């Protein structure tokens, strides 16, 4: 497999018992430095593909390869290692912890990865400054706007320098200006760090800024 490929889905299908397949024979490859957008109607299986790509769900058929390793039959311990050290999720709902400050929310993934508190604080402060949120570091989540919360969530998602971002409608709750700003933050992170991003979005204006667009239609992927 090409060492520049961060994620590959090969002939991936997902079904439950005797129900029709949710997605069928999905083939998708993301190289480093690449942003790929996935569009499709509600209920078409876009989130299922992201969950399979992020090792949160197993395909019924097919192979998921991340960073050159076949993860389909990998142990739960290895999958946890990949999710913690190689990839990160960005969701439509920010899932910030209300009882923690903005700074503490961004520090959390680093503390989970067993970095020192001093190192985590320093890096978190730097990334908040880059996102224009340095003045909000000591604020509680309830004290900042919706657009600011989503920017904090993105800061948290990239603070451990993931090589693969999986974004599920990350701008879905935002107005057009904040939506574009959030997407551009993600896009610039990918390009500056030679990472990769698979983004599910219903926003075609944002999708057009990706390197490639795929549509999920009739359970299969079509490249646009």
Task: Please tell me about this protein's structure.
It is a single chain. The chain has two domains: 1-86 and 163-224, P-loop containing nucleotide triphosphate hydrolases (Rossmann fold), CATH 3.40.50; 96-161, no CATH class. With 224 residues, the chain is α/β, with parallel strands linked by helices. 35% of the residues lie in helices and 25% in strands. The two termini are 25 Å apart. Strands 6-7-8-3-9-10 form a six-stranded mixed sheet, sandwiched between helices. Strands 2-1-4-5 form a four-stranded antiparallel sheet, with helices on one face. One of its GO terms (molecular function) is ATP hydrolysis activity. Residues 7-224 form the ABC transporter domain. InterPro entries: AAA+_ATPase, ABC_transporter-like_ATP-bd, ABC_transporter-like_CS, MacB-like_ATP-bd, P-loop_NTPase. Belongs to the ABC transporter superfamily.
Q: What are the defining features of this structure?
A:
2 domains, 7 helices, 35% helix, transport, ABC_transporter-like_ATP-bd, MacB-like_ATP-bd, ATP hydrolysis activity, 224 residues, Rossmann fold, 4-stranded antiparallel beta sheet, single chain, alpha/beta, ATP binding, 6-stranded mixed beta sheet
Q: Fill in the CATH topology of the largest domain.
A: Rossmann fold
Task: Tell me the helix content.
Answer: 25-40%
Under CATH at level 1, the class of the largest domain stands as Alpha Beta
Q: What is the beta-strand fraction?
A: 25-35%
Number of strands: 10
**Poorly predicted segments:** none
- Mean pLDDT figure: 91
CATH homologous superfamily descriptor of the largest domain: P-loop containing nucleotide triphosphate hydrolases
Number of helices: 7
Class per helix and strand makeup: alpha/beta
State the order of secondary-structure elements, H for helix, E for strand: EEEHEEHEHHHEHEHEE
Mind describing the biggest β-sheet? Answer: 6 strands, mixed
Q: Which architecture of the largest domain would the CATH scheme give at its second level? A: 3-Layer(aba) Sandwich
Shape type: globular
Structurally, the number of domains stands at 2
Distance between the termini: 25 Å
- Radius of gyration (CA) equals 17 Å
């Amino acid at each position: 497999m090409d060492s520049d490929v961060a994620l590959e889905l090969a002939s991936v299908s997902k079904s439950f018992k005797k129900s029709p397949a949710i997605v069928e024979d999905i083939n998708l490859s993301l190289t480093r430095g690449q942003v790929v957008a996935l569009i499709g109607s509600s209920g078409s299986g876009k989130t299922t593909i992201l969950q399979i790509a992020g090792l949160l769900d197993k395909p019924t058929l097919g192979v998921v390869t991340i960073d050159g390793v076949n993860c389909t039959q990998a142990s739960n311990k290895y999958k946890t290692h990949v999710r913690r050290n190689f990839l990160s999720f960005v969701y439509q709902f920010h899932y910030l912890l209300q009882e923690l400050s903005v700074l503490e929310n961004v520090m959390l993934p680093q503390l989970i990865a067993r970095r020192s508190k001093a190192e985590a604080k320093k890096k978190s402060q730097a990334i908040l400054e880059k996102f224009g949120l340095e003045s909000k570091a000591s604020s509680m989540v309830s004290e900042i706007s919706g657009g600011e919360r989503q920017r904090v969530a993105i800061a948290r998602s990239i603070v451990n320098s993931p090589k693969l971002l999986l974004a599920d409608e990350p701008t879905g709750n935002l107005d057009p200006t904040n939506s574009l700003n959030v997407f551009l933050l993600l896009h610039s992170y990918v390009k500056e760090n030679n990472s990769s991003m698979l983004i599910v979005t219903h926003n075609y204006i944002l999708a057009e800024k990706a390197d490639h667009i795929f549509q999920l239609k009739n359970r299969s992927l079509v490249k646009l």
